[in-house]
Amino acid sequence: MKAFAYERAADAAGAAAAGAHGATYLAGGTNLVDLMKLGVETPDRLVDVAGLPHDAIEELSGGGLRIGAAVSNADLALHPVVRERYPVLSQALLAGASGQLRNLATVGGNLLQRTRCSYFQDVTKPCNKRRPGSGCPAREGEHHNLAILGQSEHCVATHPSDMAVALTALGATVHVHGKGAVPMPGLHRLPGEHPERDTNLAPGDLITAIELPSPDAAAVRSAYRKVRERASYSFAIVSVAAAVSLRDGVIDECRIALGGVAHVPWRATEAEAALKGAAASEQSFTAAAGAELAHAQPLRDNAYKVPLTRNVLVSLLSELCA
Q1: What's the chain's Rg over C-alpha atoms?
Q2: Is the pTM of this model over 0.90?
């Protein structure tokens, strides 16, 4: 591992100033330290932000919830308000990583995880995300678990966070020191011609909190479903976060996000539009999934994700609307 300088931030302003001058933020380190060991990340200076006063979960007067960026994934998943009012978020967090990792990982860091594409993690291989302009060997190489939506010729990597998929479905807002409030979707970006940029944050932008809107009927009737290659903790092949409210057997409101299929947590706006005002039936769910996946552009070895995503979405909606 490359030698680096280390310091602890005294406040958010000091951390942001250091970040603006090239320092890398360190919180739980469950992703960053791994990438440093692999030689993917080679920071000259680490600024530890885990000790900043961003570790509280607060109920807001309007009924929402404010979650500090330093709150651990484990504490958020098991918080009684989250379990009761936002079950999709609790389930997504518990589906990600092991108990030990959840105890250490922070929600701010979770949002900023980097892809687990094998070419990105192997410094002996070209990768546009790691070294812009070097190429994307995944397109013709190993890509069975990579993107089918929103990819570009420069990158087909997927975003790894389970939590971010649930937050996207819930319409969360990310509070950033130096930038203000950033909606989800909106924090993460598609690869386009600059796959090296995972988010719309600039150097010095520091996530301080995540805010959830006041829960409505859709938020309470919500769930997360994840398909992975092994029963123990693993990244999603496909995941679905959905929140639904019904009135007399008709879908009054519906919010859906997909994981494991794109460079970002993918808000399924086409499916949502197709479902609003539709009967809560398997036929409606299948049609909505088809509308969303009509834009899919699978590669040679990941076309199976199209029917898999459709089946998981239909199954989850059927369960929520039963």
Answers
A1: 19
A2: yes
